[in-house]
Amino acid sequence: MSKYKCFNCGATVDSSEVGDIVRCPYCGGRVLIKKKPEGGHHVKAR
Ligand SMILES: [Zn+2]
Predict the structure, then answer these.
(1) 5-44 pLDDT per residue, tens
(2) Which of 23, 25, 32, 46 has the fewest CB atoms within 10 Å of its CB?
(3) Ligand 1 is a single-atom ion; what residues have CB below 5 A from it?
(4) CA 42–ligand 1 middle distance (angstroms)
(5) Burial class (CB in 10 A: 0-12, 13-18, 19+), 38
(6) What is the pLDDT of residue 15?
(7) What is the pLDDT of residue 36?
(8) Could you tell me the distance, in angstroms and rounded to a whole number, from the CA of residue 26 to the centre of ligand 1?
(9) How many other C-beta atoms are found inside a 10 Å radius of the C-beta of residue 4?
(10) Interval between CA 6 and ligand 1 midpoint (Å)
């Protein structure tokens, strides 16, 4: 599950909210930056 951040309005858009065409549902902007899933290398082992 990936998320995008709209470059235009800054909204976080889930990949399930967009269809074949990646577009911001809020402002209609087509420039979305793909965000990495939470977690990554910032993991606490305890
Ligand atoms: Zn937007």
Answers:
(1) 999 999 999 888 767 778 898 999 999 998 876 665 666 7
(2) 46
(3) 6, 8-9, 11, 24, 26-27, 29
(4) 28
(5) exposed
(6) 81
(7) 74
(8) 5
(9) 20
(10) 5
Residue 27, pLDDT score: 96
Residue 4 · residue 34 · CB < 8 Å: yes
Outline where the chain has alpha helix (H).
Answer: none
CB 13 within 8 A of CB 25: yes
User: 14-30: string of b/e by CB count within 10 Å (b at 16+)?
Assistant: eeeeeeeeebbeeeebe
Question: Distance, CA 41 to ligand 1 centroid (Å)?
Answer: 28
